[in-house]
Amino acid sequence: MANPQDTTPRTATISVLVDNESGVLARVIGLFSGRGYNIESLTVAPVDRDRGQSRINVVTSGTEMVIAQIKAQLDRLVPVHRIADLTEEGPHLAREMALIKVICAAEKRAEALRLADAFRARVVDATTESFVFEMTGNPDKLDAFFDLMRPLGLAEVSRTGVAAIARGTRTI
Amino acid sequence: MAAEDGEPAMAARTEALQPGAEVLLRALKDQGVEVVFGYPGGAVLPIYDAIFNQNAIRHILVRHEQAAVHAAEGYARSTGRVGVVLVTSGPGATNAVTGLVDALMDSVPVVCLTGQVPTHLIGNDAFQEADTTGITRPATKHNYLVKRSEDLARVVHEAFYVARSGRPGPVVIDLPKDILIGPAPYSPPPVTEHRSYRPVVEPDPARIAEAVALLRAAKRPIIYAGGGVINAGEAASATLTRFVRETGFPCTNTLMGLGAFPASDPHFLGMLGMHGTYEANLAMHDCDVMLAIGARFDDRVTGRLNAFSPGSKKIHADIDPSSINKNVAVDVAIVGDAGRVLSALLAEWQRSAARTDTQALAAWWRQIDGWRAKESLRFTQSMAPGSIIKPQHAIRRLYEITRESGREVFVTTEVGQHQMWAAQHFHFDRPNRWMTSGGLGTMGYGLPAAMGVQIAHPDALVIDIAGEASILMNIQEMSTLSQYRLPVKVFILNNEYMGMVRQWQELLHGGRYSESYTAALPDFVQLAQSFHAVGLRAKTVDELDDVIREMLATDRTVIADIAVDQKENCFPMIPSGAAHNEMILGPDQEGRAAGITDEGLVLV
Fold first, then answer.
1. Chain B contacts to A (CB-CB under 8 A)
2. Subunit contact B138:A34, Cβ cutoff 8 A
3. Which of A124, B358, B424, B532 would suit a FRET pair with B411, their CA atoms being 20 to 30 Å apart?
4. pTM of this prediction?
C-alpha cells in the first residue's frame, strides 16, 4: 500500500468503468477541473455494448494523498462501476496511437523513412512533399519519435491519448 | 402468461400508460412523499395540473425557488426524510442552484424536479431554456435529464435512492415538457441493488479493532462528532451518547453535529472550531488519540492545517471514503455508516480485554476543567434598566425561556455572528433540532428552512435566529408563512451591520467598515404587519424577556426585532491561519489578530 504521507508527486494511470450515459464524461472532466487535478491524457470509448459500459483511461499526477482523493472522488460518482489504479496495482500496458505529418524536402525524406522504420511507424499517406505516419506505442516512445522528426519537418501531430490495461490475468 | 398470448399483454401495457406527470406523482407517492415545495411555470404546468387533481401530496407555494430548496432542506433535516422541490425551467432552475449547493455541502437529501423545454427544442435557446443538467452537475450529488418516457419512473425512484443513500445529497431530475404530457409506463421502486452505486455502510471489523486498541491505550482521548452522526438517524446519536458515557471520554461536536451528543452532558466540551470553545479546541490540539466520526476536517474546524492536533493518532470514520485523508492524513480509516460504526465500536469496546488508563484520563479531565474555567463563552451584560442588549444574552434568554415552556423546539439560523452565538449559547440535547447552513454559509437560509421545519412539525416551536442583513435575503417568504399560517418565530439580532463582515474588517482590515453597514433598514415591526404577521421589538435589556415571552405565546408568525450592541464581536475566535492553541478569547486580545500573516489573510 502506498504511503499516504508521501509528498513526492507521481503519475497514475487510472481506468474507470462507467455507464455509457450522456453527461458521464462531463462529470469526470468537471471533477478534475473543479477540484484542480491534472489531466495529462484522457480517452473514452464504449467497451461493452451489451451492458452499456464505457471505459475511461485517465493519466494524472499528484501526491499519494491527491491520487487517493481522485480515486475516491471518481468512485463516488453514481455511474461509475469500477476503478483501477493501473500504476499502483502492478505491471500494465499503456499504448497510444498517433498520426504524424512530416513535410520535408527531398534530401530529408530518406532519413525520415529510415527513422520511421526503426520506430515501426507505418506510412499511411504520402505525397512528393509529405508523409503521414501511423504509430503505436507507449507515450514515451511517441515523444521520442516526435523529437527525431522535428528537424526533419514535423508539421502536425494527432494523438489518441492512452489506452491502458493490466498485464497477466488481472482485470478491472 | 404473456408469452402464450401477445395481445392481452399489449392491451394491458397500453392501459398502464398514463401522462408523464401522473406517472411522476405516482412515483413520488410510492416514495412516501407528502409535501413538495415549489413554484409553477410554463414547463411544469402538466405537473401542476396533476397536483390539482389529487390530495395525497401537498404543495407549498414558496415565493422564490431558492427558498423552496431551503424549505425542503429544513423539512429533510428535521425529519430524516428526503425533501422534495418542484421548479420550472430556466430561471426556476437557476434560482434553485444556491439551495442545491447548500444541500450538497451539508449532505442534505433533496430531490429537485426541474421543468425543461420539450426534448425537440433542447439546445435551441428556447424561451426559459437553461442547460440545467450542465449547470447543476457540480451543484448536485447526481442529476438526470429524462429524454425517454420509459425511463421516467425508474429515474424518479433512482433519484430518491441516490439522494438518501451513502452520504446524502441533492439530486436534480430535469423533465422536458413533452415527457410530462406524453404517455409513460409506470414501474414501482426496484427491489434489486443499484447497478453501480452501492455505498459501503458496514465497517471493516479489523479497522474497528484497531480503533478500539488505540482508544483503550489513549491517555488524552477526544471524540469529535459531526453531522454524519445526525444523518445516520436518531439511533446513531443515542449510540454515540452511550459510547461516550461508557468510555468516559470528552466529546465535541461540529456546527453541523450539534445535538448529536447532549449539550447538557458533562462529557460535552461544546462546539469546536473557529468560534468553538476554548476547552474543545485545546483538547483537540493536545489530545493523543482522536476519534473523528461523521465529520470532515473542514477548514473552520482545523484552523492552520500544519498545526492541527500535531501529536495525535487519528481515527476517522465516514460514510464517504473521499472525506478520509482529504485534508488531514489519518492513522485508522473506517468507511461506514456512523450508526453502524458506533455500534461496532461500542461492542468491541465492551469485548476488549484492555483497560483504560483511568489515572491518565482523570488527569486529562483535570486539564480540560482548567480550560473550562476560562469560561470562553462569557460576556458581560449590564442589567440596569435601559441597558443595551448583548446579543449573547438575547440568545441565552431565548434558550432559557423556551426551555421553561417545555415545548419541542427547533432552531434554524441565517449566517453570520448571530449564527455563531446561537451555536454557542442555544443548547441541544437531541439531534435534528438545529438547522443551519454550515458548509456553504448561505445568508437567507434560516427563514425558508424554518418554513420547511414547521410544515413537518406543525405543533412544534420553530425559531429562526436571524441577523437583520441575512433575513432580508429571503424575506419574501414571510408571505408563504402567512399563506399557510405557519407560526414561525423570527428572532432578529439587529445590530445594523453585517456583523461578521464588520468583525473581520475590525480585526484584519484596520477597522475600515467598507459596505458592511446597512442604511435604510426596514421597520421590522411594520414589515411583519404588512405580511399579516405580528411584529415585536426590544430596545433595552429590561424589555427583552417580555418580548420573548410574548413571541412564544403568540400562535402566529412573529418577527421579534431585538436591537443589540452594534460593536459586539463573536469570541472566542481562532483567527484565520492560526492554530487551535492561538485562540483569541475576548476583545482585550484582539491585538493578536494583528499578527496574522499574509498567508492567513488570504483564507476566507
1. 133-134, 137-138, 141-143, 145, 147, 162, 166-167, 195-197, 199, 320-322, 324-326, 329
2. yes
3. B532
4. 0.95
